[in-house]
């Protein structure tokens, strides 16, 4: 046997060669950072299950937004956990509620930072579900989307750069698009959680957003983890209804779905590296089992390689520093 003519290692022999020939480029420009807004002032309450993440009052969220922008990240997405909860999520219908206040404050302080808002009802309902609950315990789709559209309009009027419905009710993108258009907000994009799975990886988020369901689960509206073709159907429907970007959530366990969606559409594809994915890396790192930086960058690169244009991640502010250290 002679020496091999093809030697792929030639292009891997130094860091300079590896950078030059790298197929997938991960940048802080690709990332969106979640912020959790709570009532009060000077509140920075650590989320126990998500090391480094905190619930923030509006003033503290402004400080965090500045830090995020300085890290090179171009967008944040806002969630909130109001004190008042009732069956109709009335706290989210207040035009001066937590999210509208935070949108105005962040945009005033960081006008160059894009502010997305999550549009759902779960953290403002006393039952913790993403829609209105009927007496028999089922979720009423059509009345829920009317409320969701009003919530989205409140966010748009406050100056949100995009609204992101995450409830998985049928028809909610169309309801939001029509109300925004009628109300003078035709230029507000919709980032649809188009393929959101009923995942076991959401646990830490429910502590951060105070949004655990009081009974049952969300499997009647979030997607079955076994289904991939259904994701393409959901994505197609949301695009027909006016979505500008589509999302797959979670990211890591659904790389195949991200790839299939990327191949099926021409709009930007967003993937959400969710709380459970983040906390698993954090917990293993704290025990010395893995290298946090290496594992986070590897997983984010894998999500990008699968086809995501943008990634929502709790690691977002660290990426540029890690890549240059």
Explain how this protein is built.
The chain is an alpha/beta fold. The protein has a single domain (26-323), classed as TIM Barrel. It is built from 11 helices and 12 strands. Strands 1, 2, 3, 4, 5, 8, 9, 10, 11 and 12 form a 10-stranded mixed beta sheet that branches. It has a two-stranded antiparallel sheet with strand order 6-7. Strand 4, helix 3 and strand 5 form a beta-alpha-beta unit. Helix 2 (58-70) crosses helix 3 (98-109), helix 3 packs parallel to helix 4 (141-158) and helix 4 (141-158) packs across helix 5. The longest helix has 18 residues, at 141-158. The protein is globular and about 75 Å long.
- Please give the largest β-sheet: 10 strands, mixed
CATH architectural label: Alpha-Beta Barrel
N-C termini distance: 43 Å
Radius of gyration: 20 Å
Query: Residue-averaged pLDDT, rounded?
Result: 95
Structural class: alpha/beta
Helix content: 25-40%
The CATH topology name reads: TIM Barrel
CATH level 4 superfamily: Aldolase class I
In CATH, what is the class?
Alpha Beta
Quickly count the helices. Answer: 11
Beta-strand percentage? 15-25%
The general outline is: globular
- How many structural domains in the coordinates? 1
Written as H for each helix and E for each strand, in order along the chain, the element string is: HEEEHEHEEEHEHEHHEHEHHEH
The poorly predicted ranges are none
* Count of distinct strands: 12
Quick summary:
38% of the residues lie in helices and 16% in strands.
